[in-house]
């Protein structure tokens, strides 16, 4: 598999083969999120819906910790595979596997110990505390399972087993969707049932992917005796993984800030923005999936010092992503009123939501450029550039833009803030890409010079 994907196939074919399963798994995850919301809402218990919603940041936290070892480990493994260092690939994969389990267990214990103050900090009240506590408790108990689920799905893609990774994700999602109505409504478990279904779904993913690693992976390991790795490798995993994890946290923060700035304009604008963001997420996930699909190739060719194929991979990925982003932008902008109406048939929501949705996707090309360059930096072990880009688009750039535009243009400034931040972040990304890879790419593709795995 590794030789076929990384060495024999055309760049375009290899990129698509690795990307499509990831895009499909992301779309399936989005469908699950919508279905999960649907089954909870079918109880017609607003306190239950609110209680489950209050637990969303806990899941985001667990996902962020999982991505530290998932993306940090997969980036390093791609480069090690390029250098044909199979021994250290096994060690890094074993380290990522067991460290994720231990980290999840520690987080779960802390969450249980801090349950009461954490719930009130999340916004639980007398009406929602029981539902929020039940959901929170089971997520905390399942923390090791949830954190671990992100690791093998990423590590398998790093060695070219993208279809197998997708199968594990789809399996967990299907199990979750099947269990949701049974546990929530049939057995009357409410919020606890929703959380238990989530944990069992991720457990199925973990078991399935562990079997794939054991039976089909030629490089990855789950042997405890291979858990020890170099300090520089730990630095690489954390240096790449932590910025990648910050993206999840910053997404939540940007939503909270946007809602706070929309509050003076009425709850309808907040509802409309929430719907617009969910709809735009469909296009965003497609972009992110195709960007991440090239990650194993970037890391492998960089680790192998194969400039010719790395240059070809850069050229194809930029052209391909720009075309995909442009098509998605046109389609969503045209269909915006229909998409918003499909979520909520209320004229004021449709009016606000249509405008918001169009501004959310209008700069999708810039989002694609920024995301792709961020992933290239992560894949090739560029820690500082990766960190800067990870905290820019929905981090410091967005906050600065939101403060300025809301003061200057009011409501219009709030709904345009993300689009402006997208453009600025993309320009930053291009400048960083030129600085980091300019001299490397100017060199003849046939020339080979040592490129260390950890820098």
Tags for this model:
globular; single chain; 0% strand
Characterization of the model:
- The protein is mostly helical.
- Helices cover about 85% and strands about 0% of the residues.
- The protein has 19 helices and no strands.
- The longest helix has about 35 residues, at about 305-345.
- It is globular.
- The model is unreliable at about 445-450 (pLDDT under 50).
Q: Estimate the strand proportion.
A: under 5%
Strands, total number: 0
SS-based class:
mainly alpha
Largest sheet: none
Q: What kind of assembly state do the chains in view correspond to?
A: single chain
Distance between the termini: 28 Å
Radius of gyration: 22 Å
Described by the principal axes of the CA atoms, the overall outline is globular
Order of helices and strands: HHHHHHHHHHHHHHHHHHH
Mean pLDDT: 82
Helix segment tally:
19
- Unreliable residue runs: 445-452
Topology:
Layout lengths: L1 H7 L2 H31 L4 H9 L1 H27 L3 H28 L1 H8 L6 H13 L1 H16 L3 H25 L3 H26 L15 H32 L4 H27 L1 H9 L3 H37 L3 H16 L1 H16 L3 H8 L1 H18 L1 H32 L13
In short:
This protein is mainly alpha-helical and 455 residues long.
